[in-house]
Amino acid sequence: MKEAVSKQQVHGQGIPDSMQEWAEGVWQQIENKVERISKRIGVSFPHASVDGLYDNMRPSWWTAGFWPGILWQISADGNHASMQQIAELIEERLDEPLYALAVHHDAGFIWTLSAVANFRMTGNERSKQRGLMAASQLASRFNLKGKFIRAWHDTEQVNRSGWSIIDTVMNLPLLYWASEVTGDPRFRHIAAAHAETVLEHFLRPDGSSYHILQFDSESGEKIGAMSGQGYAEESAWARGSAWMIYGLVLSYNYTGDDRFLNGAKRAAHFFLANLPEDKVPHWDFRASEEGGKPRDTSAGACAACGLIELAKIVPQAESFLYLGAAEQIIRSLHEHYGAWDLPGEEGLILSGTSNLPGGVHIDTPLIYGDFFFVEAVSKLRGTALQLW
Predict the structure, then answer these.
(1) 3-class SS at 225?
(2) Global pTM value
(3) Phi, psi of 215, rounded to the nearest 5 degrees
(4) Which of 244, 325, 349, 380 could form a disulfide with 23 if both were Cys (CB 3.0 to 4.6 A apart)?
């Protein structure tokens, strides 16, 4: 393990001392709880908390990287050898889908937060090779005509060769990283091309986002949209908006293309303008009142990470807007949705909504919500660790 990560600056001004002090206290709560729950969760692949305990999905499941991602973030502070060991063992288990050529559009969620994190922190060459294998398989899903990375595999009933989803914009850092370490620009070209398609077709003029778009896989022309995990085709699924904010910021960080920065800002303004009073989003900003409007804390945590990154990029007058909004979200998640005083609950943050239309994991902790909460608190502490 390399030395503990250093402190960072937000647009040269530094994170305010009061914010860092608060975040340090929360970080201690995170460390204590993750150390405790790691003893039971161990080498597994959690997705959602069920009756207080995290479940265990298959290694190819899209959330398989978030638990090791949490462990690597805590290990970066040093003196957490047991957590690093768990993360390394999980990475080995992920060879199963990697060598079975079962990598899908969420490869970045899985291997950026496991193998690439390991390589960045320890220089492990085996981890580097795993990351490059995953990046190569992700790149193979690129449709040249439509300039998009296809989502999912086909089923017996459905040909998905022309489907693409907003989630994939958060997986592009795996490709950008692959270009950096190999010196081969083709990975970056694919990532940037997909990000351009996100700007052109997924991001609406008002800053909201589609979840699923369908293209003609032969001509590349857009055919239409599907509601996916949102309320309707033209609604505004909150986690999709969060993916848009953070994903475009990351594409800007790797390319310097102002179009991605401006798109991220447009998505951020829509997100912030539609938050309820407690600053934690409902699962869809345009969902009807019928059937209730549960929160999705995972969307809030992810968006906060993107807002903090935005604050580093924009002029000082704007940076305080984004940093202040991120702090409000994370403070609300901690104070109103934190599970610190619930010994029977392994999740860190309550009230995540995985897939409301599908009736799957509603109003419960989600491992990716926990991951982004940990990442946001880490950033507010002023640490320079960047997994993406």
Answers:
(1) strand
(2) 0.96
(3) -115, 155
(4) 380
CA–CA distance, 111 with 69 (Å, rounded to integer): 9
Q: Is residue 53 part of a domain?
A: yes
77 falls in which pLDDT band (50, 70, 90)? confident
Active site residues: 106, 167
Q: Where are the beta strands (DSSP E) in the chain?
A: 49-50, 53-54, 142-143, 148-149, 163-165, 212-215, 222-226, 352-355, 360-364
Q: What is the pLDDT of residues 229-288, one digit of tens each?
A: 999 999 999 999 999 999 999 999 999 999 999 999 999 999 999 999 999 999 999 998
Place of tokens 């019928």: 290
Could you tell me the pLDDT band of residue 2, with boundaries at 50, 70 and 90?
very low
What length is written for the chain?
388
List the structure tokens of 226: 């599907």
* CATH code, domain with 99: 1.50.10.10
- Interval 112-117 mean pLDDT: 98
Number of compact structural domains in the chain? 1
Contacts (Cβ under 8 Å, ≥6 apart) of 302? 239, 242, 243, 245, 246, 368, 369, 372
Whole-number Å distance between alpha carbons of 144 and 340: 48
What is the C-alpha separation between 302 and 209, in angstroms, rounded?
15
Measured CA to CA, the distance from residue 92 to residue 114 in angstroms comes to: 10
Closest among 122, 204, 219, 116 to 161, alpha carbons compared: 219
| Alpha carbons 368 and 43: distance in angstroms, whole number | 17
Residue 4 included in any domain? no
DSSP 199: I
Distant-in-sequence, close-in-space partners of 262: CB < 8 Å, separation ≥ 6: none
Distance of CA 232 to the CA centre of its chain: 22
In a domain, 191, yes or no: yes
How many CA within 13 A on the CB side of residue 120? 24
Query: Amino acid identity of 51?
Result: D
Find, among 361, 318, 321, 366, the residue nearest to 339 by Cα: 366
Would you state the structure tokens that stand for residue 147, as one six-digit string?
A: 């300039």
Q: Which domain holds residue 163?
A: 17-381
Residue 317 lies in a domain: yes
List the structure tokens of 345. Answer: 């609950």
